[in-house]
Every structure is written in C-alpha cells, then in structure tokens.
Amino acid sequence: MVNSIPYSIDASAREAIPTSKVLVVGAGGIGCEILKNLSLSGFRDIEIIDLDTIDVSNLNRQFLFRKEHVGKPKAVVARESILVHNPDVKIKAYHDSVLSSDYGVNFFKKFNIVLNALDNRTARNHVNRMCLAADVPLIESGTSGYSGQVELIKKGATQCYECLPKPPQKSFPGCTIRNTPSEPVHCIVWAKHLFNQLFGEDDPDQDVSPDTEDPEAKLDGQNSVTESGNIKRVSTKQWAQDIQYDAEKLFNKFFNDDIKYLLSMENLWKKRTPPKPLSWEQAVKVVGAKDENDETSVRAVDMEVWSISKCTKVFAESISQLRNDLEGKTFLVWDKDDKPAMDFVTACANVRANIFSIQQKSRFQIKSIAGNIIPAIATANAMIAGLVVLYAFRILAEKVQQCPSIYLRQKSVHSKFVLAADRQLTKANPNCYVCSAKPFVNVFVNVNKMTVKEFETELLKKHLNMVAPDVVLDAKGVMVISSEEGETEANNDKVLSDLGIVDGSILKCDDFLQNYELTVAINQYEAVEKDDPFFKVVANPDELKAKESNTKENGVSDHKEPESEDDDLLVLDDIVEDPQEGSSSKKRKLNTDSDDDIVEVPL
Ligand SMILES: Nc1ncnc2c1ncn2[C@@H]1O[C@H](COP(=O)(O)OP(=O)(O)OP(=O)(O)O)[C@@H](O)[C@H]1O
Ligand SMILES: [Zn+2]
C-alpha cells in the first residue's frame, strides 16, 4: 500500500508532501482522479468539498463511485473510497457548496495548495478570489472532451482566473427563440425557458410568448404589432397555478393559441414556412408506429424519437410530477439529470419542432444539447488530474516557475504531441478588476432605469461575481446595499438616481466573504437599439480610450469579446505547422500570434 512516496518525485517535494494540507474543490471527473493521485503519492492531509450527489451517469468515469453509491454525496463517498485503499490518509469531506459563507478566507488559509476540479465559472471565480485573498496557490483545471488545461494561479506571480474577460456563453436572439425557430436547438432552448416560466425562477429574459417587438414582425409603416394582440400574461407561473397546471390548457395555450398569434404576424412568414398550430385534441391523435413498443426499455425511452401523441402523454405526466416537486418550494432548478425536468423539455421541444417543421430529436440527443454536454472523456480527465498533482509537487518544491499553463489537445494528423505548455508563467493583467492592487471598473448603466436590486443581482453578483456585496456611495457615504438582511431592503425598487447615483458617481463595493473591494465608476448610458445591453462593464482603460474613435452617440463603444462555445477553456486554435521550421517541428498555436510563447511537451 502507499506509505512511501514514489522516488520519481522531486526530493524536496517528497519531504513536503506528508506535512502538506491540500483542498480539492469538486469531486467529479477530475476531482476523483486528483484524490486518487494525491493519496497514491503520499499526501496525508486532504479536504474535499462537493455540493452534489452521485448520479448514475457519473459511474463511467468517476471511479471512486459504484452503483450502490448513487444518490449519496460525492464528497463523502469519495472520502470513503480513498480510505478503503489507503487508510493512512486523513481526509475530511464537506457535502456543501464552496460558495457558502462557512468557507471564508481563514478556511482557505489553512491549506498549502488548493486544487480546483469544478465545472462552472461562478465557483471558479469565487475560489480564485478566496485563494488570492488567502494568498494560497491555486491549481485550476478543466477538460472539455479531449481538450484540457491546467493553470497555476498564484498571487503576485501569475495571472488570476479573472484577468482576461471570458467569452460570453453562446446565446440566441430572443426573437429566434420566441418567434422563428429554425433549428432543433432553438426549440430546446425555448422548452428550457418554458420550464423556468412554469416552475423555475422568474426571469424576464426567458419569456416564451410571441415577441411583438420583433422588428421583422412590424408591418410596413406600422410601429408595433397591435397591443390588443399582445399576449398579456402577468406571470405565467401564476396563471399556471390558477388553472392547477391543467396539462390540456397549458398545451393549448403554448402550442395552439400562441402559434395562431404568431401566424397573425404575417411579415414573419413571407419567406419562411409558417408554423402549424396544434391543439391537444389533434396532438393526442398523432400516434407513431413505435408507440406500441415496450415503453420500459431504455432504447424506446431514450434513443427513439417520440411520436407527438407520446409527447402529449409525457408532457402531462412530467407536469404533474413537477407540480408535486414544486410544492413547498418557491421554484425548481432545471437539471438534465432530473427525470421529469428532462422529460418535460424533450416533449415540449419536439412538439414545437413539429409545429415549425423542424427535425425532432430523441430524448438522448436533446439531453446532450440541453445540458451542453460535450462528452466527458475519462482519459482526458486522468491526464489533466495527473498534471494537476505534478504541479502540486513542483509548488511544494518551490519550483513555481516550472508551472506554466499547460494544454491537452486531441492527437491529430498534424502532430503526435498532445500536450503543449506556455514557455513561462502568464503575468497578471494590470487592469484586472480582481487581482490588481486597486480593483476598479467603469460601469455603463442607465441610472434612471436600473433599480438597486438589478444593480446588485445582475451587475454585482451575476456579472462581477460578488457573493454578498455592501455598497456605499463614496462622496455622500450613503449605504446603497447592505449584506445584512433587512438593512437596505427599502432601496431595492428605487432606481440608482433616486439614491443620488449619477454620471460620474463613485461606488465602493465590498465583499466581506471574498475579502474583496472594488471601486465602481458610474457612467450614464442609454440603450438605443433593441439589442443593446442593459449595462456594460469596462475594466481596461485602453478599451475606454479605443472607443473614442468609434464612439456611438450614447457614448459606448462596440467592444466585442471573442466568441467561443467553450465554458471552461481558453480558445485553442488548431495545431499549425510552423512554416519557419519545417514539418518536423509542429507547434500549437494558442491565443497568440507568436509561436515563440509555447513549447511542445513530449510524452
Ligand atoms: N459551488 C460548488 N461547490 C462545490 N462543488 C461544486 C460547486 N460547483 C460544482 N461543483 C462540483 O464540481 C464537480 C465537477 O465535476 P464534473 O465536471 O465531472 O461534473 P459532474 O456533475 O460530475 O458531471 P457532468 O456534469 O458531466 O454530469 C461536480 O461534482 C460538482 O458537484
Ligand atoms: Zn486578475
């Protein structure tokens, strides 16, 4: 068993390993591998935090978990499985979110290294801030299919996770989703929005009713589609509750009445196939040849495209289940692994696809699109986790310079190398609004329209990743937002200008948990076009200067961030051949024009 530390590990790391304390955040695909590696290489003091329970879909790659563990907390089972193999490890498990205020800066200070094995930006941003505040090195990692990345984040030595703006997540224009879907994914996004409208958290951006403001829908010489036709729904959820979630009424509303209304927006259908409204009565009759098949087989349920009649059945069943699940709660959170939630989306997406003459999909295909699933590859997770622990050795051996960012790519015809590393540590962005000495951002908002609550939720929490901000108007010392419950609630519905926040105001925004203080300069901005954002955040003063040559009337530039569908990784372009060096030397071209910045890592 593992009481000795492998000799292949650097001598100074070998010395440090037994007394080092390590935190692993996330016990999923990479986290399980990291835990196994830590235990096998002699680490004796490990803590692990994960908020989730084990799903059957985790078992093909998260090897610390077995069938009998399904439904149990990941962190707890991961600990038990490690102890079975190596009882000498002291390992503490937390079944909890790392965002909880129980894990403050002092919690993070206990560790020599923190290893991230997460799957979302919110948690990554938060751990980034906590490690900067506690001054503990963080090894950040992620995989996406066959690609992966490991990056060291160390205060004063490297860039932080938030130094560069991340590309926005791919989204579709609202009118495509609400009025003119043309691909299966549009129907799937709409179905997820419908789930949220009926059972989830209220989000006005996820309206599912016909969009009467669609510029394309406006008739020649007419400014707006008649108000009387505009479908007034004070709250879809409230209405659904009032009709006791009657499946037939809901179906007729969304798939018959709303579609008829869309048809009345004639301009939309001049060059498109018009949708065909579908009533419940018609839908139940659209039976498919496969409906008689064994409905309990996984193949029938998951891999086959359901008939419309089957969709109506599943629609009704899932609604009744979700209605029960909602009891006693304010809202449900959509989860691809929650059966009724996934069934509901499959049924709705397919009915809508049928109405718009779009190809229907199986539950399995819809799950992969709806969950943005890029297949998780066990070997990619294993390689990345190996590198994470290798970097942990180097950090303990105080060889930080030997931990440049390293990238895993799928082996291709162009190169036999699957790993490439930056030549050196990536320096911090001096304008980073997280890790620079005096974090500062310019914020462009309409002070006469944005409420204090929106400022807190949309801007400070969702965009700037604060957890519990306190905000003071600098010049006047007015408390705008307090993290103490009840202290500033009276401000919530006021617009910013009501509190004296105007163009040029400076706000001090403080997050006690993250030990983070941000200065926010307010710039008055009015959205002109329909698609103009509600607000903008500009951290880099160069972006402000650049916009002057390209300034719109409203004073905001057309700054565009690079596009990528990938949530977890930097954009890695294809491996390219270096024309200077011939075919024997092929280099990986990253997000840089200079091939000199990276080196191949032979295996
Ligand atoms: N805020 C958080 N606090 C603690 N753990 C988190 C937090 N956010 C995400 N995690 C955990 O990070 C892990 C990421 O692992 P992974 O990417 O393999 O995801 P998964 O949920 O196991 O698999 P999949 O998403 O592919 O079904 C998950 O176990 C998840 O519960
Ligand atoms: Zn930074």
Automatic annotation (TrEMBL):
Pfam families: ThiF, UAE_UbL, UBA_E1_SCCH. Keywords: ATP-binding, Membrane, Metal-binding, Nucleotide-binding, Nucleus, Transferase, Transmembrane, Transmembrane helix, Ubl conjugation pathway, Zinc. Residues 443-527 form the Ubiquitin/SUMO-activating enzyme ubiquitin-like domain. It comes from Rhynchophorus ferrugineus. Heterodimer. Residues 181-264, 303-367 form the Ubiquitin-activating enzyme SCCH domain. This is SUMO-activating enzyme subunit. Residues 9-433 form the THIF-type NAD/FAD binding fold domain.
